[in-house]
Amino acid sequence: MIPAILLMLGIGATCGIVLSLSSKIFYVYEDPRIAQVENNLAGANCGGCGYAGCSAAAEAIVAGKEPPSLCIVNSKDGTEAVSIIMGVDAGAAEAPLSYNLCEGGNRAADKYHYMGVSSCKAMDAIYGGHRVCTVGCIGLGDCIKACQFDALHMGADGHPVVDDAKCVGCGACEKACPKNIIQVRTLSEKLMEFNQAYDALAPCAQTCPAEINIPKYISEIKAGKYDQAVQTIRMRNPLLLACGRVCPHPCEDMCRRGIEDEPVSINQLKRFVADYEMNSGSRIPITCAPDTGKKVAVIGGGPAGLSCAYFLRRIGHQVDIFDAMPKLGGIIRYGIPEYRLPKKVLDWEIQGILDLGINAFTQVKFGQDFGLSSLVASGYHAVFMGIGAWEDYALGIEGEDLDGCYKGIDWLSKFASGQEMKLGKTAAIVGGGNSAIDCVRTLMRLGLEKVYIVYRRTRNEMPANQVEIHAAEEEGIDFVFLAAPTRVIGDDDGKVKGLEYLQMELGEPDASGRRRPVPIEGSETVLDVDMVISAISQAPDPSFKDNDSAPRMKDLEITRWNTIDNDPETLQSSIPYIFTGGDSATGPSLVVTAIGGGRRAARSIDLFLKGEPVEPVEDSLQGKNIPESIFKKVDGITPIKRAKMPEIPVSQRLDSMIEVDLVLPEDQALAEADRCLNCCRLCYNPDTEFPIAK
Amino acid sequence: MGDLFVLSISCIFINNILLAQFLGNCPFLGTSKKMETAVGMGMAVIFVLVMAGMITWIVDVYLLKALDVEFLRTVSFILVIAALVQFVEMFLKKSIPGLYAGLGIFLPLITTNCAVMGVCLINIKEEYSFIEALVSSFSYAAGFGLALILFAGVRERVILARVPKPLQDTSIGLMTAGLIALTFTVFRGMV
Question: Are the Cβ atoms of B87 and A122 closer than 8 angstroms?
Fold first, then answer.
């Protein structure tokens, strides 16, 4: 007994002594701050910071490799405590959040039935999941199991729902998801996302040049969450009031309901929520990322420049806008007449963008009042050029310089800036685009007796918006189709007294698919008018290149259409720190295209400022459609009439510049939102109990 | 030499500590969900078991047998192995940080591993010499690692299979382990 007790005591003592000695001998010095920092971290061991557990993160912070704000789960107090231990400023980090990109859930049809598999990862390994949609949510909840913070739950529709209040953005769900449907992103990352070939996108959202998530904002309108709908649109388009009025909505052409019925009136719904915000009397707050300390100059305050400035500001860069005109807005202020887009509305919208902290300098022209070298010297790290296309093409016919001859955009912008205009009694406007229509409708309102549109093809080939042509017809404009002007006839005083044109007939289709007009010999006809406005498209004015004295300016490539040459994917010009978008890069195009271009340029500028290679978005759609998402036939549709746009009667229109198109009343807007099928890539909500996917 | 080779084969395959003697089942099920952790655990067991086998043999022969207190074998082995693992952990952290980074989180897990204890007791029961004890410790540990890695490979694929709900996860794991154990019976009579 005694030897046994002694032996156990002996072994115990030996072990104790050996261990205590070796803890001295093998002592590894650890910075005491590591333990202190670790005590102030969240202690979740979630790995969201990229380190293996909190102690590894604490070591990295103490070693100075990472900022005190490294822990994404940590409370504000915890982060402050860590920064006090480390003796540095906390530094603001942008909090990431988890987003579920697939809201199809149970509605996508099954490809096969296979019970017993309990994880998305396993299901994905068998032909990419059991649903016909190859990109969508599998619905077995790997993300929910991965979440340590109880921030995800399976919604009634069979797709996971994120609870923003609980989500800490650790990224565990994103790692667990085999489909990339759950993504953890910061606001900046969300703002700089572009449509990609494998995204879950409805046909309308693929087509929108600004890439707005259309089904999302319509379902938010449906739910009565107008504020959220505005926020959703503002993720992609800062000019919703303007676009809601003037956009020719290419999205509606691709609307899936339009295959069996009339398309959803998407743009009127956008205008409805945009007007709702403006009329509500208060602005919905727009959040911006913390300042990055980088400064960008935006030349041109039109749609492209405003969009680029807005997105750069929201991702944290400092932006200054320079514009040659007295007020910002560019072509949408000076080219679009008051009755389509009231200046008051535009002012309100632009003020909202400037309120984010953007400085605007007006009446300064690039190349004259300031130049590239002054921008570089003022410490701008990058330059966006959105100078628009303001140079009207000339008709190239005899008599074009007579008194009474004008050019479309030039005339419209002079009128919009309030200059005294010399008017005749009758006018002929040459061209078939929107600016030609804008000219005739403005002239009608100025009290002219007769206004003609002279176009060399027919109504079907007119590039102007259908609604605009229709409105012009209602307002009593005379259309002279198949007419090619040959000369302007003047009287003895050098004043216009007529426009001579050749009658045409349609021949073989040309490269654009439109039938080419062919002149009929000897068919010269004279139209008695005392004003001729040519509105046959415009080009950018490249004179800044020669006016600017900076030697570097010689490197800026200009195309033969006078547009600034750029990489179509990154919008970077031939000078690496100059980016360009909008009409000055594409030639005359849509407002919404310029807005999309401004955002794409903002992404490239952001990459450039961070010192990363300016590379295009991978598999970027850029308005191309995903073939499998474009249907020929849509089942389960009951035709329902589309909401008719309210407008003021013709009799009240012509004596003032009052806005013609009105906003939808709330009940009609809600009914219209109900018509939306809430489509995604393959699935949608049919009107009837059509058996897709149950 | 030949005897040692036969001993080694019998320890790895025929008397596999996991699949024939059913010792060390907790880490077998716990660390076999991922190949990565299975490999780490296997390596840590080899390292610790070789050390523990040597120390316990010395303790048994020069202390317990010498003082004729062999009834204290189990309790003294637990004490010695626990202290040894702690010591090894400290030693590695200071001297071989690379190895510590690889095995670090597995070492404390082994403190209470019955496979380690079992092998040490088998070494004594079979009255192995020091060299034999060394070979047997290494081979049993290698057998442990082999079984663990095989099992992890199977389990990584089991998640793709159609498993009825009540049998998912650990249940199917135990069944799979049983089937692997059955296949190991073919080695019986080899030596």
Answer: no
